[in-house]
Request: fold
Amino acid sequence: MTRMTVKHPNHPEVDMRFLRLYEDWTDYCELMNSFENFELDPEDYLKEFREYIDEQYEMENGRLVIMGIRFTPSTVMEKLDDTAFTIALNQYAEMRFESDPKSCASYEWAFDDIQTTKESVERQCEFLQDFGYVFDVDFEKLEMTVSFDINYLEKNNVSN
Reply:
């Protein structure tokens, strides 16, 4: 990790804020890159899929009774034809994800983490703007430009 050092003559906390900004921006870019390559994991929907299958059949006390032994319909389906069960689970997961992406635990976690990190980047930029720094941030393109308003020094009587 590259270290960034900024020394502000009257406000030493600026250095810490720039370091935090750099770390948050790096995290944000990494999260966005992994988010763009997100792959749906049907296992995130396994419990919900089993419940869906089990609700489709009339049963005695929630179980399918075969020769006195009780099974759930989802267990029977999985044990009789694992391939069909896996295909059905994949289709169910894709359908649920398309209709509501936040229904996927992995996706929701990544989305929340990205939002939190983005908000932290915005807070650091807002703080640093009060000290003459100008930010041009494009969160979609993952680009950030930082410049310094030279007029800040004159306006605030800052000397080297």
User: Anything to note?
Assistant: Confidence is low (pLDDT under 50) at residues 1-5. The radius of gyration is 26 Å. The helical segments are 13-36, 46-55, 73-80, 82-99, 105-129, 151-155. The CA atoms of residues 24 and 119 lie 9 Å apart.
